Fold these 2 entries.
Entry 1:
Amino acid sequence: MADLDKTASLDRDLQPLTNPQLPAIGPVLAAVVAWGAAGLVALLLGWNIAGWLVLGWVAFIVVLPAWSSAVEGKRSAIDRLVTSLVWSTFVIAMLPLIAVSWTVIERGAPAFSVEFFTSDQSGVIGVGGGILHAVIGTLVITLIATLISVPVGIMAAVYLVEYGKGNRMSRILTFLVDVMTGIPSIVAGLFALALFTLLLGPLPRLAIGGSIALSVLMIPIVVRSTEEMLKLVSNELREGAYALGVPKWRTITKVVIPTALGGIVTGATLAVARVAGETAPLLLIAGTLRSVNWNPFEGGMATLPVLIFSEATKGGAKPEYVAAQLERAWGAALVLIIIVMGLNLLARVVGAYFSPKTGR
Amino acid sequence: MSTSTEAEPQEQAAERTPRRRGDAVFSGAALGAGVLIMLALAGVAIFLVVESVPALSASGDQAYGADNIVVYIWPLLYGTILAAIIALLIATPLAVGVALVISHYAPRKIARFLGYVIDLLAAVPSVVYGLWGRETLQGWVFPIYQWLHDNLGFLPFFKGPVTTGRTILTAGLVLAVMVLPIITALCREVFAQTPVMHQEAALALGATRWEMIRMAVFPYSRSGVVSSVMLGLGRALGETMAVALVLSASGVITINLISSQNPSTIAANIALNYANASGTKANVLIAGGLVLFVVTFAVNFLGRWLATRGQVKE
């Protein structure tokens, strides 16, 4: 018995304090080996670059854990395998973003010309004309939707945070806003369609209907983001104002909202960016007018997303018409992406500009 | 008892403060905004129901050749759910991985940037994804489908024949790209909320990073992940333009994922047929929209419910 104890303690003395580990450069080495070997195989079999990258990835997923298993043991090997897989998911998730951006720029940029931005599609068959009418339509419809949604959304959030405070009405409202966030965009379009069918008769085409449909989608986003921001405003600020005898509504308008303004503006801008790219509701109610229309209360309006959809699906009598329509669709897609990404960037900048007051 | 004694002075205080007109107007406006939102949602439901009623009696030509409204909508509902399930099967593992990268694997400074990049994925309008799927992606996946058909053709999913890249599987892929950032954003928050103490305790006991995540992060965030997947499902069910552009649909019910005979989805079907929807055809389409509304409502409700149940657990 004593002997056994002694040998055990001896063994322990002989063991190193730390487990053996791969060198820090190990994963890089494994990557070089994996993609190098895969490159040889790909060259021999005449595969393209995609095949080489995929084969190298498979080799890497095998090589690194195998090496780690030999040196560090099974648990570390599994850890390294999972780390490789998790980072792989990120790379895979990036592929569509890169592919979409690249394709849109590559195929959209050739469409850009002075005519493309200064003329509409009235009287154009197939080749020629521009997208001015759709740009104007998108701006007008989105602007009106913003004018409806932002005040309503902010006031509803003020009610939830400042007045409701967990009473029955505010709980129901929170729930309904959650439900509204999940409304499919086409259902919002059908709502506007059904509303104006009842008012105007079958198959109405009205730009203001598009704004209303977009508001249904936009209001819950504004409420959500504003609510989060108002909750961040510390109670000391409110209590300080009350202690000075400031009425509640002036406390909200002069203290609470200015403090949270950065976040509110960021949220609203992101909401605008989100609905500016909506297609389905506008397709149903705003339609596909071919000329410039500034009046949202009379007739439909073309918008960029709807233009993309209709040009891509239209088909044409001659091949060059179809090619011209596709080029127009890609050009419009590039314009739309520039607008939406610009709004996203603006939201970040505005948020950073206004935010120092909240100290976050 | 204590509550009543506390409440009294407050009531007296409330009486002593003068009623200001500004306060009344402002709180009224706030309440009005809340009521307006409720009315809008009620309006959505009511108008859809009212406009759906005539569709119940539609048949033959007015129901796009189907015997009645149920026969017409059922294959569309099947296609909607099939496309959404394909999207989730692809997107969920990726989204959990990406969320882990941002919350646990990437260094803090890089993680913020990576988060922005993933958010950009959500910023691309759906119609652009649709155009990309229709024009570009379908060409890339076509040889893969041929390979699947040649090598795995014995499975019912890959029976083919492969004549186009614009199949329900491609539609599912595009939908996966679109729901990925949504699931990622929610999972990321849930993972980040795991108590740091649990994680450090696991690491201190000698767990590797993966063991720490498996034992400390996943059990804590399981319901949050499930609810984020449900919310992603809600989005995938209602997505219109990507499917309408990508899919070459013929309204059949099949589990064959790569043939040219594909089930359509409710939303895409509305977008493609609204233009010539005369008479009760419009009502039939609106009835489809109502079904979609009810299904997404149920899915979102379940997702929110799971999310709140997960929060209570803390």
Entry 2:
Amino acid sequence: MIGTTAGLWLAVVASGLYHGVNPGMGWPLAVSAALMERRTGALWRALAGLAAGHLVAMVAILMPFAVMTLLIDWQREIRIAAGIVVIALGLWIFVTKRHPRFLARVKPTRLALWSFLVALAHGAALMLVPIYLGLCRAEDLDTAHRAAEALMSRNLTVALGVALIHTAAMIAAGGAVAWGVYRWLGLKFLTRGWFDLERVWAASLILVGVLALATA
Amino acid sequence: MNLRPDPTFYPSAKLAMEGPPEKLAFTLMLSPDGSQPDGLAVVDVDPKSKTYSQIVHKVIMPNKGDEFHHFGWNACSSALSPLTGHAFLERRYLIIPGIRSSRIYVVDVKEPLKAKIHKIIEPEEVFAKTGYSRPHTIHCGPEGIYVSTLGGGGKDGTDGPPGIFIMDCETFDVIGRYEIDRGSQDKQYDFWWNLPRDYMVSSEWGLPPQFENGIVAEDLLSNKYGHRIHFWNLRERRNVQTIDFGENHQMALEIRPAHDPVKEYGFCGVVVDTTNLEGSIWTWWREGGKWHAKKTVTIPPQPADPDDLPDLLKGFSAVPPLVTDIDLSLDDKYLYVACWGTGEMHQYDVSDPMKPTLAGKVELGGIVARHKHPNGKDFGYGPQMVEISRDGKRVYWTNSLYSTWDDQFYPGERGGAMVKADVGAKGGLTLDKDFFVEFPKGYRSHQIRLEGGDCSTDSFCYPSA
């Protein structure tokens, strides 16, 4: 199962990079902050805010699932339910293309809050759930049965690990793009380099959900 | 479906200035007596074109009596803000409100020469969902399309204060009122904002009974028109400060914030000072967490023989400049000031916003002066709604203020027109002899919008630095 585990951790990193380069997850706000304040320091501070919001959203979504993994008899059902929820959100985004207006009410200075809300609203955090459940399962198969307490503590650690590694990858990718635009590419990149990822994003959610169902 | 942002969205004002020059303009046509339906004229402004300076297409509305005044785009450069998630909207629809009927038209100009009506929002929907009437200024912003109104509820629009409402930027459904806490704001005219700094500024004209049937001289002389500007926390929808220019500064109209969001200042034009008939420009700015405002330009009236003056002005033996519109170039360098009464367009260098200096001037029309256009034609009225090209090199304007007010200051039917002036490399303003658009008989001309955005449309989320 080493292969599966490594693959899943790779998926955690890859999804982080993917979220990071997506302008909708906030790197242009870091560019704006640096330009508004005319200091590079503002760019790092904005990225820290975006990372904090993203991390909290990941933890908030993963923790309940970490607790639920205690229901050992229901593992399959939980994985199927998670897959269905992810697919449903993907389909909803794919079909409606509507943006939640409450995001526009967040003040431009509250980047951490904005990043938290956007990661929830667009399903960035939810995308990680099937991957996380896969990880819990892979390790279970390795170690067979354990005491509930040990299992719980291990699954929480894995959840935290997933959230941290994913967010680190996300902010590394987003930060690299933000720095590149701020330092070298210039604002023109915003109009040339910004692609409509909405359908692709929705499709990614559906894909992750389908994989989760297929392997459940 | 766009996979990339609309090419007319620019992250900063500086990048907008580097965009391609406009080839078409959209200008509102209004029937002052409501005998014909109002319309949208598409004007050729490409000097290389055979139809340069001609109306090449018209969209005529299905109703009469709307009275078109101001209008705006469904989307502008502010759509590039990741906060709102609307980077892939198209700048495609013009939102045109009728300030007399409260009806709103959404016109699809994707193919400008085949522009057509996309949707009509009937007055009843506006009344029912907002309690406001007489929609006026349009800006696309964080929560959708923002529309300022001049009237409250009731038949004469005085049942409750006027304000701003929001429309959905995709379906154009009226969502509801903007204000959560309006403070002492009880009149409304223009509004604009600084999106990253999260503030909005709004101004005051007067209530519907004070303008719909003409200017009310008694109200003006007793200083009952608006003379205050309001500062809002944009996303909290709260009025945080009100500045009173002094009650003699009647009609604080156009709000023009610096386009570069790093700058926390802007301008407001005041039509007339009732103590001396001067027009004035005020600079407002934020310092120490508070808003301040100061009169930075005054334009004196010009003495005149009462025999040459309309009834309204005979007693004063002078023509007031009547500062009815102002517009700021995208580099925040030149402020254009329309003096509708005296017939002048002033160009101020506002590089130092606290010390504007007159850099150029064009004389055209005027109540008494009646300056002719270089092509020999009469301009009829005075310079009024002004619009500047994105690159700042061309300035366009029309000549009507508002149907009933035109008739008081410039009696008789004098012909709607649109002209253009070229800006010199070091400032200065010269009328283009070859550009003079005469509007169809019975129509007057009002606000101008330029293809791909202009200097009173787009809000930028990134600095020009």
